[in-house]
Amino acid sequence: MKNKYRVDYITQKPLSKMFNLHHCDLHVENYTNLDEAHFKCLGNSMHDVVHTMYRYYRKDRKCIDRLKEVLDLMVELSEDEPLPEDKQLDLFGV
Question: Rounded to the nearest 5°, which phi and psi values hold at 14?
Answer without folding.
Answer: -55, 140
